[in-house]
User: Fold this.
Amino acid sequence: MTKTEAQSTTARTTSAQRTAAGAAGRAPRARRAALAVAATVLAGLAVPATADAATGRDPGDADPAPARYTHQILNWQPCARQPALDCATMTAPRDWHHPGTGADLTIAVSRHRATDPAKRRGTLLMAAGGPGGSGLLRPAGLATGAPAVGAAYDIVGFDQRGVGESTKAVCQTPEEFQEFLAGDYRDQSPAAIDRVIANSRKLAAGCQERSGDLIPYLTTEQTAHDIDLFRGLLGERKLSYYGPSYASMIGAYYGTLFPHRVERMVLDSNIGFDGTWETFELGQPMSFQRRFDEDFVPWLAARDATYHWGSTPEQVQAHWEQRRAALHDSPIVEGSVTIGPNQLDSLAMSAIYRASDFPALARILATVDDWQGADPAVRAAAAKAFNSYLSPEFLAEYFAVTCNDTPWTRDLDTWIERGAENTAHRPLAGARTLAFSAVCAAWPVASAPRVKVTGAHLPTTLMLNSVHDPATYYEAAFGAHRALRGSRLVTVTGNGDHGQYPTSNTCVSGVVERYLLEDTAPDRDLTCPSPQAG
Assistant:
C-alpha cells in the first residue's frame, strides 16, 4: 500500500457511519434468546447442547454426534462442472438437535488445494449468499481473484442444505413461479392485492406439500452445524472463513456457536444479523431505491448519446416510468419468457448490485424500447437476462431460511399497509413487500433456536461494506458490526457495489490480505475510498 493509500485508511467516523449509528440506536431490538455453544470430539462434531455461549465453555464436547457422521471419509473427485476443484458429498442429520430422526441429508462440498503448499496457512471455508445461492464452485473464483490467498489456503465451499447439488427443497413448478411474479406489484386495487396474497399463500403451501419434512430444518443455525461437521471431516482443528452477503450471517452464527473453531473471519457486505429478517428486509426498499436513484440514474443520464434514455436524471426517471407503464399494459412475450413491470423491476435490482453491470442494464433497457426492431439474438439475450434473477429453486431456499430463522408479523393488514407505503415512496423493491412478506406470514411457526450474535470468544473479525450497497445496506451492516464485539469495519466510500473482495480496490485488498496472510488485524475501523472516487 502506498503512503497515500495508508493515509486514506486512517480511522475516522464518516457521516454515513454517524447516520448508521443513530439509526441503529433508534431501531427496535428483536427479541432474542441465547443458544448454547456446541463443540467437537473425535474427528469433529458434537450434538448441540444448551448452555450460555458467553461462558466460552464447550458443553457439547462430552456428547459426540453419532459416529456415522463424524467418521465419514470424503471421497474427493474432480468436480464435473469445474475441473479445477475437487468435489465430494457428506451426510448430515436432518435435525442436528435430534440426529438420527428422519432421513439424513446430502451436502455437496468442494475443495481447491493451496497452490503453494510450503506457504499453506490452513483451510478457508466460503459460503454463498441469497439465501438460495450455490456455493459449490465458488472456491475456484476466489482462488483466481485472490491468488495470494489461493496459494496459502485450501479454499473449500459447499451447497448449503436445500440448495443445488445438496438435498434440495421444492416449492413451485416453473408455471406456478411465473404466476407468483405475474402482474404488477404496484397495483393497489383490491383484486390485485387479493391475487398477490393468494399467490403468496400458494407458494407457502407448495413448500409444505412438496418438501414439508425438510423445510423446518433449512435454517442458518442448522447450516452452521453442517459447517462444523465439514471442518471435522477435513481434519482441521480450526477454520478461517470468508462470507459475502447472506454468508455473512452464516459466518456470524457459526462464530457464535463455535467460536473456538474460528481462526480468522471476513464478513463481506453484511446482513443485519443482529436482528430479525423482517427488520432487515424492511430496510431494503430504501437501499435499492437509493442505489437506483443516486447511482444508476445519473450514470445513465450522463450517457444519453449512447443509450438515448434522457440527458438528465429527471428525464431518465420519466422514461423509466413510461416504459414500465407500457409493460403493464402490454407485456413483452419472447418464447417462454414474459417481460412485465415486475420483471423490469427485478432485472434492475439484480443489475445494480455492481456498477460494472450498469452498461448491460442500459443495453437491455434500450432493447426493450424497440423490442421488435432489435436483432433476434439481442432479444434472446435480453430475455435470458430477464429470466435469470429469480428462480423457483432460489426462492424455495430463500423463503425457507428467511421465514424459519426469526419471527414474522402474521397480520396481513399490516403488510398491506406497509406494502402500499413502500410502493408509493420506494417502489423499485418496495412494490414487492406484500408478495414476499405474505409468504412468511403464511409460513408455519418455526422452531429454530434463536442465536444472539455477540462476538464473545471470537478472534478479531473483519467486516467490509460499501455505503450504497443496495442489498446489504450500510445501516444494517453498521448495526451488525456493533453487535459483533471486537469486529473491525472497513467502510468503502464512493461505492455502492455488493461484494468488496476480491476487487481492484487495493485499499480493501491490502487490509484483507494482511489479515488473512500475516495475521495483522486493524486496530480500529477503517475507511477505504473506491478507486473511481480518486
